[in-house]
């Protein structure tokens, strides 16, 4: 599903965020990306959904080489990749239904398909009854559930999550993780950057640790390995 070969990312300010990254993530895996702040985790994540391009090497997602992808073709890639952010990034003037539907409207899906699919994913995340509420009327955990619903409404092959529990209390964080597990069990690949030691050490999955822009560990059922 995701393959990086010899990937290096240097920013215009001279900082080398990643260097010589080689990694393969298979369809259906659940992978944590861990490491100290500034290690390169966010850059790793951004390369997958083509927010950034590698300076050297190849990033292939679902058979698409993102390094060679023309800007007009980026939406094609992003139909395969759902993204969940720490700060939710919901549209404040749109209600829950409209926020999720927006992801389908931009690809000009048929209205009847949009209605059916949006209500299905809102039911999955437990927010069908709050479809007409605005983001400001929801708790942080509910807002993150809306963000997750939006990320999966296109039936993506992979969901990228960048610190998805970073702004949530512990109980809500576990609820969100349960939701990610459900999505993964349905066959969707999950790649999650996180600093949450307790979650990584409790819900054991593959762990890729990045330090100083390089892969320091890649372990099946690994642990967090750092002080929280």
Automatic annotation (TrEMBL):
It is found in: Cell membrane. One of its GO terms (biological process) is cell division. Its main location: membrane. One of its GO terms (molecular function) is transmembrane transporter activity. It comes from the Bacteria. Coiled coil: none annotated. PROSITE patterns: ABC_TRANSPORTER_1, ABC_TRANSPORTER_2. GO terms for cellular component: plasma membrane. The keyword rRNA-binding does not apply. Residues 2-228 form the ABC transporter domain. Belongs to the ABC transporter superfamily. Homodimer. Forms a membrane-associated complex with FtsX. NCBIfam families: FtsE (TIGR02673). PANTHER family: CELL DIVISION ATP-BINDING PROTEIN FTSE, IMPORT ATP-BINDING PROTEIN. Part of the ABC transporter FtsEX involved in cellular division. This is Cell division ATP-binding protein FtsE. It comes from Domibacillus epiphyticus. The gene is ftsE.
